[in-house]
Amino acid sequence: MAQERSPRSDQKGPFLGPLSGFGVTFQTMFKKPNTEFYPEEKVPTAPGFHGRHQLNRYPDGLEKCIGCELCAWACPADAIYVEGADNTESERYSPGERYGRVYQINYLRCIGCGLCIEACPTRALTMTDDYEMVDDNRAGLIYEKDRLLAPLEPGMEEPPHPMQPGSTDRDYYLGTVPDNTGAEPAERPDNTGAEPAERPDNTGAEGGSHP
Ligand code: SF4
Ligand code: SF4
């Protein structure tokens, strides 16, 4: 037969039990409060925080996403939906043959694991430190390209537009293509402020910065 557990007061006695409880309260009274005044004061996220995703661009504004769906296949929560389409010479959104025509991430499903960004072959997909993804309806938490694409920076032009004269999709991938001002390709750090990680490509050539 199972032995009955004795009440806590029996272990420390009828007086010491309550006193040790008040002792914890007393000690806590002199500790510095750990109150965060969010949303008035925002605390910076930890380096490498997995927040909202971002679809990155090349320095001239073309999209890095090639619509390959590898991110969607890697996602354990089935949170990503991609539909690729063909670029044409008159309507080009990314270097190479294909681009992501439809790109959706369902933040009701996403668990922030980051497997999708590991799977992306062009480093089109990264994660930012934005954690303010709230809404009062389910559809509002399905983010599409209008909310995922990186904003245009100086020297970028909104696609569709042609690739830089004389360049190939490989030049874009290797990061040797300048922006539309003709300036040298700039190193773009990720949104964590951390140093970009070097990742070699499968050709053995040195990889560019992340994203
Ligand atoms: S972070 Fe994880 S769960 Fe979220 S979309 Fe990427 S792979 Fe899916
Ligand atoms: S984000 Fe990357 S992995 Fe996903 S479809 Fe675009 S290129 Fe492929």
Write up this protein.
It is elongated, with a radius of gyration of 25 Å. It has helices at residues 8-29, 70-74, 115-119, 145-148, 169-174, and strands spanning 53-55, 80-86, 98-106, 125-127, 142-143. A 3-stranded antiparallel β-sheet has the order 2-3-5. A two-stranded antiparallel ribbon has the order 1-4. By secondary structure, the protein is of the alpha+beta class. The chain has a domain at 53-174: 2-Layer Sandwich (Alpha-Beta Plaits). The structure holds iron/sulfur cluster (2 copies). Residues 74-75, 77, 79-80, 105, 110-116 line the site of one iron/sulfur cluster. One iron/sulfur cluster is lined by residues 65-71, 82, 100, 119-120, 122, 124-125.
